[in-house]
Protein backbone atom coordinates (compact mmCIF):
# COMPACT_ATOMS: atom_id res chain seq x y z
CA UNK A 1 0.00 0.00 0.00
CA UNK A 2 3.02 2.32 0.11
CA UNK A 3 2.45 3.16 -3.54
CA UNK A 4 -0.89 4.73 -2.62
CA UNK A 5 0.95 7.31 -0.53
CA UNK A 6 3.38 8.27 -3.28
CA UNK A 7 3.07 11.51 -5.20
CA UNK A 8 0.91 11.43 -8.33
CA UNK A 9 1.59 14.99 -9.55
CA UNK A 10 1.93 18.58 -8.40
CA UNK A 11 -0.98 20.99 -8.85
CA UNK A 12 -0.65 24.70 -8.04
CA UNK A 13 2.34 23.92 -5.86
CA UNK A 14 0.42 21.23 -3.95
CA UNK A 15 1.69 17.63 -3.90
CA UNK A 16 -1.17 15.31 -4.86
CA UNK A 17 -0.99 11.78 -3.45
CA UNK A 18 -2.40 8.77 -5.31
CA UNK A 19 -4.45 7.73 -2.28
CA UNK A 20 -5.90 11.22 -1.90
CA UNK A 21 -6.77 11.40 -5.58
CA UNK A 22 -8.25 7.91 -6.05
CA UNK A 23 -10.19 7.89 -2.77
CA UNK A 24 -11.72 11.28 -3.38
CA UNK A 25 -12.57 10.64 -7.03
CA UNK A 26 -14.48 7.58 -5.85
CA UNK A 27 -16.12 9.77 -3.19
CA UNK A 28 -17.17 12.21 -5.90
CA UNK A 29 -18.67 9.38 -7.96
CA UNK A 30 -20.48 8.22 -4.82
CA UNK A 31 -22.12 11.60 -4.39
CA UNK A 32 -23.16 11.71 -8.06
CA UNK A 33 -24.69 8.22 -7.75
CA UNK A 34 -26.47 9.32 -4.58
CA UNK A 35 -27.97 12.22 -6.51
CA UNK A 36 -29.28 9.68 -9.04
CA UNK A 37 -30.56 7.51 -6.15
CA UNK A 38 -28.57 4.57 -7.48
CA UNK A 39 -27.92 1.56 -5.27
CA UNK A 40 -24.35 1.60 -6.58
CA UNK A 41 -23.62 4.64 -4.43
CA UNK A 42 -22.90 2.38 -1.47
CA UNK A 43 -20.47 -0.15 -3.04
CA UNK A 44 -18.51 2.77 -4.51
CA UNK A 45 -18.52 4.51 -1.12
CA UNK A 46 -17.23 1.29 0.45
CA UNK A 47 -14.46 1.05 -2.16
CA UNK A 48 -13.47 4.67 -1.52
CA UNK A 49 -13.20 3.96 2.20
CA UNK A 50 -11.20 0.80 1.49
CA UNK A 51 -8.65 2.69 -0.64
CA UNK A 52 -8.18 5.37 2.02
CA UNK A 53 -8.06 2.75 4.78
CA UNK A 54 -5.22 1.01 2.95
CA UNK A 55 -3.39 4.29 2.50
CA UNK A 56 -3.66 5.28 6.17
CA UNK A 57 -3.26 1.87 7.84
CA UNK A 58 0.03 1.47 9.67
CA UNK A 59 0.99 5.13 10.04
CA UNK A 60 -2.23 7.12 10.57
CA UNK A 61 -4.25 4.82 12.80
CA UNK A 62 -6.97 7.38 13.54
CA UNK A 63 -7.60 8.10 9.86
CA UNK A 64 -7.69 4.38 9.08
CA UNK A 65 -10.18 3.86 11.91
CA UNK A 66 -12.41 6.60 10.54
CA UNK A 67 -12.47 4.94 7.14
CA UNK A 68 -13.43 1.63 8.79
CA UNK A 69 -16.47 3.38 10.30
CA UNK A 70 -17.31 4.90 6.90
CA UNK A 71 -17.21 1.42 5.33
CA UNK A 72 -19.50 0.05 8.04
CA UNK A 73 -22.05 2.84 7.43
CA UNK A 74 -21.79 2.19 3.67
CA UNK A 75 -22.82 -1.43 4.28
CA UNK A 76 -25.76 -0.18 6.36
CA UNK A 77 -26.76 2.23 3.60
CA UNK A 78 -26.64 -0.51 0.96
CA UNK A 79 -28.84 -2.71 3.13
CA UNK A 80 -31.35 0.10 3.72
CA UNK A 81 -31.61 1.14 0.07
CA UNK A 82 -31.76 -2.44 -1.18
CA UNK A 83 -34.63 -3.07 1.21
CA UNK A 84 -36.56 0.10 0.28
CA UNK A 85 -35.83 0.63 -3.43
CA UNK A 86 -39.08 -0.97 -4.63
CA UNK A 87 -41.15 1.75 -2.95
CA UNK A 88 -40.60 4.09 -5.92
CA UNK A 89 -42.16 3.73 -9.38
CA UNK A 90 -38.74 3.85 -11.06
CA UNK A 91 -37.33 1.13 -8.81
CA UNK A 92 -35.11 3.59 -6.91
CA UNK A 93 -35.50 4.83 -3.37
CA UNK A 94 -38.02 7.59 -2.62
CA UNK A 95 -36.58 10.71 -0.93
CA UNK A 96 -38.37 12.17 2.07
CA UNK A 97 -37.95 14.92 4.62
CA UNK A 98 -36.97 13.91 8.14
CA UNK A 99 -39.42 14.42 10.95
CA UNK A 100 -38.63 17.07 13.57
CA UNK A 101 -37.82 14.30 16.01
CA UNK A 102 -35.33 12.79 13.57
CA UNK A 103 -33.76 16.19 12.94
CA UNK A 104 -33.37 16.83 16.66
CA UNK A 105 -31.88 13.37 17.17
CA UNK A 106 -29.34 13.85 14.37
CA UNK A 107 -28.39 17.35 15.55
CA UNK A 108 -27.96 16.09 19.11
CA UNK A 109 -25.93 13.09 17.96
CA UNK A 110 -23.73 15.36 15.84
CA UNK A 111 -23.07 17.74 18.74
CA UNK A 112 -22.40 15.05 21.34
CA UNK A 113 -20.43 12.93 18.88
CA UNK A 114 -18.22 15.84 17.82
CA UNK A 115 -17.35 16.66 21.44
CA UNK A 116 -16.67 13.02 22.31
CA UNK A 117 -14.51 12.35 19.23
CA UNK A 118 -12.61 15.64 19.63
CA UNK A 119 -11.80 14.79 23.25
CA UNK A 120 -10.60 11.35 22.11
CA UNK A 121 -8.39 12.96 19.46
CA UNK A 122 -6.99 15.40 22.03
CA UNK A 123 -6.24 12.55 24.45
CA UNK A 124 -4.42 10.67 21.67
CA UNK A 125 -2.78 13.33 19.44
CA UNK A 126 -1.52 10.72 16.98
CA UNK A 127 -5.11 10.12 15.87
CA UNK A 128 -5.65 13.55 14.35
CA UNK A 129 -3.83 16.63 13.04
CA UNK A 130 -6.49 19.06 14.28
CA UNK A 131 -8.90 17.44 16.80
CA UNK A 132 -11.95 19.73 16.73
CA UNK A 133 -12.36 20.34 12.97
CA UNK A 134 -11.39 16.75 12.24
CA UNK A 135 -13.98 15.46 14.72
CA UNK A 136 -16.62 17.79 13.25
CA UNK A 137 -15.96 16.49 9.72
CA UNK A 138 -15.84 12.86 10.79
CA UNK A 139 -19.05 12.94 12.82
CA UNK A 140 -20.77 15.16 10.24
CA UNK A 141 -19.88 12.66 7.51
CA UNK A 142 -21.35 9.78 9.51
CA UNK A 143 -24.54 11.75 10.23
CA UNK A 144 -24.86 12.69 6.56
CA UNK A 145 -24.36 9.08 5.45
CA UNK A 146 -26.92 7.88 8.00
CA UNK A 147 -29.47 10.44 6.78
CA UNK A 148 -28.76 9.39 3.20
CA UNK A 149 -29.22 5.73 4.12
CA UNK A 150 -32.61 6.68 5.60
CA UNK A 151 -33.43 8.56 2.33
CA UNK A 152 -33.69 11.96 4.08
CA UNK A 153 -33.29 15.13 2.01
CA UNK A 154 -31.51 16.63 5.01
CA UNK A 155 -28.42 14.60 4.23
CA UNK A 156 -27.57 17.22 1.58
CA UNK A 157 -27.67 19.97 4.21
CA UNK A 158 -25.36 17.90 6.41
CA UNK A 159 -22.86 17.59 3.53
CA UNK A 160 -22.93 21.37 3.02
CA UNK A 161 -22.06 21.90 6.69
CA UNK A 162 -19.21 19.39 6.37
CA UNK A 163 -17.91 21.18 3.27
CA UNK A 164 -17.69 24.51 5.09
CA UNK A 165 -14.97 23.08 7.32
CA UNK A 166 -13.62 20.35 5.06
CA UNK A 167 -12.32 22.63 2.29
CA UNK A 168 -9.97 24.81 4.40
CA UNK A 169 -8.94 21.90 6.64
CA UNK A 170 -7.84 19.71 3.73
CA UNK A 171 -5.81 22.51 2.15
CA UNK A 172 -4.21 23.32 5.51
CA UNK A 173 -3.17 19.70 6.05
CA UNK A 174 -1.65 19.34 2.60
CA UNK A 175 -4.45 17.26 1.07
CA UNK A 176 -4.99 19.64 -1.80
CA UNK A 177 -6.88 17.19 -3.99
CA UNK A 178 -9.37 16.61 -1.17
CA UNK A 179 -9.82 20.38 -0.92
CA UNK A 180 -10.51 20.71 -4.64
CA UNK A 181 -12.91 17.77 -4.57
CA UNK A 182 -14.80 19.28 -1.63
CA UNK A 183 -15.40 22.40 -3.75
CA UNK A 184 -16.93 20.19 -6.46
CA UNK A 185 -18.88 18.40 -3.74
CA UNK A 186 -20.48 21.72 -2.88
CA UNK A 187 -21.82 22.17 -6.42
CA UNK A 188 -23.08 18.59 -6.62
CA UNK A 189 -24.72 18.92 -3.21
CA UNK A 190 -26.71 21.98 -4.32
CA UNK A 191 -27.91 20.24 -7.49
CA UNK A 192 -28.65 17.01 -5.66
CA UNK A 193 -30.53 18.84 -2.94
CA UNK A 194 -32.73 20.54 -5.54
CA UNK A 195 -33.45 17.22 -7.30
CA UNK A 196 -34.36 15.34 -4.11
CA UNK A 197 -36.43 18.29 -2.87
CA UNK A 198 -38.46 18.37 -6.09
CA UNK A 199 -38.94 14.62 -5.97
CA UNK A 200 -40.46 14.84 -2.49
CA UNK A 201 -43.01 17.32 -3.84
CA UNK A 202 -43.75 15.12 -6.86
CA UNK A 203 -44.13 11.97 -4.80
CA UNK A 204 -46.43 13.75 -2.31
CA UNK A 205 -48.91 14.90 -4.97
CA UNK A 206 -52.21 12.96 -4.74
CA UNK A 207 -53.20 10.79 -7.70
CA UNK A 208 -56.62 11.72 -9.04
CA UNK A 209 -59.12 8.89 -9.34
CA UNK A 210 -59.39 7.76 -12.94
CA UNK A 211 -56.16 9.48 -13.96
CA UNK A 212 -53.74 7.46 -16.15
CA UNK A 213 -50.98 5.69 -14.18
Automatic annotation (TrEMBL):
Belongs to the nicotinamide ribonucleoside (NR) uptake permease (TC 4.B.1) family. Keywords: Cell membrane, Membrane, Transmembrane, Transmembrane helix, Transport. The keyword Hydrolase does not apply. The chain crosses the membrane at residues 12-34, 46-79, 104-124, 136-162, 174-193. The keyword Cell membrane applies. This is Nicotinamide riboside transporter PnuC. It comes from Streptomyces cellulosae. It is a multi-pass membrane protein. It is found in: Cell membrane.
Amino acid sequence: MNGLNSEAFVLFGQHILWSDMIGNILGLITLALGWRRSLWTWPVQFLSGLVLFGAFFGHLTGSAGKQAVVMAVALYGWWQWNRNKDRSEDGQITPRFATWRERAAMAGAAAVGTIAVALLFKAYPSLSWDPWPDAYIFVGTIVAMYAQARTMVEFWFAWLLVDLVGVPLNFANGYAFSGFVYVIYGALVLWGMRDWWLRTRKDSQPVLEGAPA
